[in-house]
Structures are given as C-alpha cells and as structure tokens.
Design goal:
Layout lengths: L7 E2 L28 E5 L5 H10 L5 E5 L3 H9 L5 E5 H9 L6 E10 L1 E5 L13 E4 L5 H12 L4 H4 L1 E4 L2 H9 L5 E5 L2 H11 L5 E5 L14 E9 H4 L2 H23 L1 H16 L5 H10 L3 E6 L6 H10 L11
Parallel strand pairs: 2-3, 2-4, 7-8, 7-9
Antiparallel strand pairs: 1-3, 4-11, 5-11, 5-12, 6-9, 6-10
Helix pairs in contact: 1-9, 1-10, 3-12, 7-11, 9-10, 10-11
Length: 331
C-alpha cells in the first residue's frame, strides 16, 4: 500500500504504486495515451471518505492525491497551481475567495453533511453548560471551527470571550479529552464515533452532545443537514478541455462514491479506514466509520451547487459574513 510520502497515481486501486515509490508497475501507458493525473488536494476531513471509495471503484481514473494537514497547506497548493481539485469546507473556500486569497477557485459540488459535533459527557446539553470552560477544538479555520463559531454567535455568545478554545490536532484533542482536560471536544465524524468508542473502553461516557448542523436546516437540503463540504476546481483546469473532461469524470465518480458510502457502510468503512491510514497516518477503525455511516451521524450527499442556490448563498453569508459573487461558482 502506498504511504502518504508517495503520491498516488492509479494503476490498480490501493495496490500498485508508481515506480518512484520503489514498486514495479504493470505495462505503463505512454505519455501520449495517458493524460497527466488530476491533482486532488485534501485535508483529513469527511470529504476524504468518498475520495477513498472512488479510488477503489474507478482505478483507471488518473489521479494524484495530495494529502495536507490543514487549510494553510491546501491554500499553498492551490495558489501555486499544484492542484486541480480541492476537497474542503464550502464556507472556508468562500471566505478565502472573498479575501482574494484564492480568486481562481470555483465551487462545483457541495457535500451536504451531518458530521460536526461537540462531544461531551452526559451532563452537557447546551452551550450554556460549556460557558467559561475549555473546548478542545480541531481544524482551526476549517469546517468544525467556523460552524461552531457561527452556532455560538447565533445563540448570543462571543466565541473568544465566553469559552476557552484550545486548538490542537485531532489526535491530541481526543487524547486530552480522554484524560479529562477539556469540557468538550470539537471534532468531525468519523473521529466523533472513534472517540466515543475509546471512552467506552476506558469506562467513560461521552456522546455527541451538541449537533452543530442544527440551526442550518433548509428546504434545499433538509432540517438535519448542512452544506458543509465542497468539491472545488481551479480555473486553469476548467480552461483546458481535456482537463475539464477529466474533472467531469472525477465529479461523477465522487458523487457515486458518496451514495455508495450511505448504502454500503461496512465496505465504505474499510476503504476509508485504509485511506486515512495510508495518506494521513490516522488510525480510524473501519467499524467506527461504518457505525457513523450506519447511524447517520456521518451522512454524505454530493450535489451540484445549482440545486442549492440561493439557500447556499444565505448559508455562506451566515458563516463567513458575506456570500461570494457568482464567479465563485463554476458554470
């Protein structure tokens, strides 16, 4: 299996690596017959789950996965034109676009999720129970952080004044929460289900105490979901007909993989767990990912942006203060 230090270009799904990784490859196509791989940059978030599934389902689609730890590294890859596709939070992309940091980024599909929660002991029911306490938070500036802050503001709180927010990598968030160092942990699925299972093994009781999707319901996507994820494409990819055709194939395969995850949780869990281990060095038990999909604490649905506007514009404005202009959306 490829490790994260080796870029992955498909020959046989999760099996054959590039010669540059030190492994043999079967009958490589010539440069003339094989298009350059579509470069896909992704942090370790729920957007990666369909990606890992589609890699196995469409082994002939030429892709190069570029794993990054967070938004800053993703921005660097996109700005340097080292990526064709970016998979991350819809509102984070809108914020960066509004700030002029990623002017050539285009949102194509939205991943409508259930995935973000504040995990806490049973005595925590509302944000009022956490006021003045430490919240161990992951993915600063990403989906969990921006949505949590928006929920806090909705309920009349100042995130930085009324709570003690401590930002750490997800692994440290889980470790400190299990050690009793925080009143709540901000995590996305499938990290939530994994943390709850670890706590149970240690005789502790944790639960998804606050559902951060609540309050963002719409007729466009449902009452218990939110348009959190995003499939973004660089303008230079859209401008090249051959690359655009390759990207269209990617979107179709990614959408199919999202649907597959919800109907085949066990198989999806196994593929996603292997992908997180290979690309991010993250140990997420496959049964925990499957459990999150089965119970729909992790729910995934990839939809074209045209189906969700203008409700999507209102959501983005609510999260980042201003909806992006029409150029933000791919035609």
């Amino acid at each position: 299996m490829l490790k994260k230090i080796c870029w992955f270009v498909w020959g046989i799904a999760f099996g054959v690596a590039l010669a540059g990784c030190g492994l043999a490859t079967p009958q490589q196509p010539t440069a003339a017959s094989q298009p350059a791989p579509l470069k896909v940059v992704v942090p370790p978030n729920p957007n990666a789950v369909p990606l890992f599934i589609m890699l196995a389902q469409t082994p002939d689609l030429p892709l190069e996965v570029i794993p990054v730890p967070g938004v800053p590294e993703l921005v660097a890859a996109v700005r340097g034109e080292d990526a064709d596709v970016a998979l991350f939070f819809s509102a984070a992309g809108a914020k960066l676009y509004n700030q002029g940091k990623l002017p050539a980024l285009r949102l194509v599909n939205v991943n409508v999720w259930r995935a973000l929660y504040l995990v806490a002991p049973p005595d925590v029911h509302t944000l009022a129970d956490l006021q003045g306490k430490t919240i161990l938070a992951s993915f600063q500036g990403g989906a969990p952080d921006l949505v949590m802050r928006a929920v806090m503001r909705q309920q009349g709180y100042d995130p930085d004044r009324d709570f003690h927010l401590e930002y750490l990598p997800p692994t440290q968030v889980k470790q400190l929460m299990l050690a009793g160092k925080g009143a709540a942990a901000l995590l996305p699925e499938p990290q939530v289900t994994a943390l709850i299972a670890q706590a149970r093994q240690q005789g502790q009781t944790l639960r998804p105490a606050i559902d951060l999707q609540a309050g963002f319901g719409s007729d466009a996507w449902g009452d218990d979901m939110a348009p959190l994820g995003g499939v973004f494409v660089a303008q230079h990819t859209l401008d090249d007909p051959a690359r655009k055709a390759l990207f269209d194939a990617f979107v179709a395969a990614y959408s199919q993989a999202s649907a597959y995850a919800m109907t085949h949780p066990d198989q999806a869990g196994a593929l996603a767990a292997q992908g997180f281990a290979d690309y991010f060095g993250t140990r997420l038990p496959s049964q925990r990912i499957a459990e999150a999909l089965r119970t729909k604490t992790l729910a995934l649905e990839s939809r074209p942006v045209a189906e969700l506007r203008p409700a999507l514009d209102a959501f983005l404005a609510q999260i980042v203060g201003q909806a992006p202009d029409d150029d933000f959306y791919a035609p």
